[in-house]
Specification:
The chain contains 17 helices and 15 strands. It is α/β, with parallel strands linked by helices and 503 residues long. The chain has 2 domains: 241 residues, no CATH class; 248 residues, Nitrilase/N-carbamoyl-D-aminoacid amidohydrolase, CATH 3.60.110. The radius of gyration is 26 Å and the shape is elongated.
């Protein structure tokens, strides 16, 4: 019977872990799964518990994040193993404090370790912040406001501290007075967090002044295929080039016509999704001259998401976003900052130009491209931006998860965001993460999203102090670990929190 109970427990735990993050994420699941996993690990011997956590986390991660079709299965498995190896370490560290768990101070070891290892992992992970626990709470708008102060690590802390407190309550269930004090301490922190979030959503909402922005994706039927072998073969070069040039002209004129139509409908900013315009390197300046004329004639900011193809280079792709102002001047000449490993990086020849900002009548405008948004550190370069344009290109396996992740950058840095994604969900959000417009590429026949976007961002505390919370977690981890090992504990006495030796 006990064996059957263990199997049932492990099965329920795996299902909850599967729904804790990634493509199947449900916000409540992780709040149940992590306490259960910590409970199970504590019931096992140290290395058995670590191995159990490793297998459960790794298997659930593989299925939850097996969303990139161009990554071979062995690589996906390796990524899952790498993630689970790091994510399991806090459970291993927790096992070294098995004799100190009566102290409420011990509840801080597991969450601070979880925050630190997660932060370190995402500093080196080639796919940026993918898999961060905070993304599991995408739907919890009030909770998300805390990242405008302390960053995503704070949400990881709340989730994992909850797990530690739940287990502490269970282990100390005979000490009702002590348990009540511990529950009150956690509830106070979570309550203040949610109160702040509710206050920010209600009383610090984006200003009423807006600008009309039209973001455009090309029709799938017009997308251009590039015959690189044909371009590099002297016998077929001219013929292939003529075919490509005819196709790119049709595609780009289609996008220009739609851009002018949106300008005439009242849009002051118009831009294309990532790489939706396509041009041969030798024709690039001609494309920009045409864009400059249209921007000046229509008195708009016109942004071209363009794939520039240079067949003479083994890294033939230049992934650019070029913005022209209402005078026809080139105002932003941005190259994608971070290319996607595995598919895009080997063929990309992008220059590191950094995030560029321009002052406009509609606030400070800046731009990044798609994958750039998955790197919180990189987006610190957008500090002070009011409106961020993010031309993007997804695929159905990461839709709408990838766009949902993008709004975290808006909340962190305090800008209003439009992410126009071909082959995915496009969305406009304000700096609280509120969705003000959205469009599904696969169901919208026009593939144009019109957004009334607030023109003023805010200066967030996170944009000033950055990841200081990580340093705080490091200090708390060191202090609590040393205090516990040296025989000092936090105990609740007479409605107060005191430090005392324990024996």
């Amino acid at each position: 019977m006990k064996a059957l109970q263990k199997v049932i427990f492990a099965s329920i735990l795996f299902v909850l872990l599967l729904f804790s993050n990634g493509q199947y994420a449900m916000s409540f699941a992780i709040w149940v799964a992590v306490p259960m996993l910590l409970f199970a690990v504590r019931k096992l011997k140290r290395w058995q518990g670590f191995l159990f956590a490793l297998v459960m986390i790794g298997a659930s991660y593989y299925f939850a994040f097996d969303v990139v079709p161009f990554i071979p299965v062995p690589v996906s498995i390796a990524l899952a193993v790498m993630y689970s190896a790091v994510a399991s370490l806090p459970y291993l560290i927790d096992s070294f404090f098995s004799k100190n768990r009566a102290s409420f101070l011990a509840t801080l070891v597991f969450p601070t370790a979880a925050v630190l290892f997660e932060y370190a992992y995402h500093q080196f992970y080639p796919y940026g912040s993918w898999g961060h626990l905070a993304y599991s709470q995408e739907s919890q708008t009030a909770l998300l406001q805390s990242i405008s102060v302390l960053g995503m690590g704070y949400i990881t802390f709340l989730i994992t501290w909850f797990a530690a407190v739940v287990n502490w309550v269970y282990e100390q269930r005979q000490q009702q007075g002590t348990v009540k004090q511990g529950v009150l301490a956690y509830s106070l922190v979570l309550g203040i967090t949610l109160m702040y979030g509710s206050y920010r959503i209600t009383f610090q909402e984006a200003n009423s002044e807006t600008v009309q922005v039209a973001s455009i994706s090309a029709q799938d039927s017009l997308m251009v295929q590039i015959d690189l072998p044909g371009l590099n073969n002297p016998e077929t070069e001219q013929e292939v080039k003529a075919i490509i040039r005819a196709n790119t002209t049709r595609l780009n004129n289609h996008l220009f016509d739609r851009s002018m139509a949106e300008a005439q409908a009242g849009a002051k900013i118009v831009f294309w999704a990532e790489g939706n315009g396509t041009i041969l390197k030798e024709d690039e300046h001609e494309l920009y001259n045409q864009a400059s004329m249209i921007a000046a004639e229509q008195k708009i900011y016109l942004g071209l998401g363009v794939a520039v193809i240079d067949p003479t280079n083994s890294r033939f792709l230049e992934n650019k976003f070029v913005v022209f102002d209402p005078e026809g001047n080139k105002a932003i000449d941005y190259w994608k900052g971070i290319s996607v490993p595995g598919a895009e990086a080997p063929i990309s020849n992008n220059q590191a130009v950094g995030i560029q900002q321009i002052d406009t009548d509609y606030g400070t405008l800046a731009a990044v491209i798609c994958f750039d948004l998955d790197f919180p550190d990189y987006l610190k370069g957008a500090n002070g931006t009011d409106i961020l344009l993010a031309p993007s290109n997804d695929f159905i396996e990461i839709d709408p998860m990838h766009t949902d992740m993008a709004k975290f950058r808006a909340i962190e840095q305090g800008f209003n965001l439009i992410r126009q994604a071909s082959h995915g969900r496009s969305a406009g959000t304000d700096y609280t993460g509120k969705v003000v417009s959205e469009m599904d590429h696969f169901t919208d026949p026009e593939k144009t999203m019109v957004t009334k976007l607030p023109t003023q961002g805010v200066r967030t505390l996170y944009s000033v102090i950055g990841d200081s919370f990580i340093a705080v977690c490091l200090l708390v981890f060191v202090f609590s670990s040393l205090a516990l090992k040296r025989g000092v504990a936090f105990r609740f006495k007479k409605q107060s929190l005191t430090l005392e030796p324990y024996g």
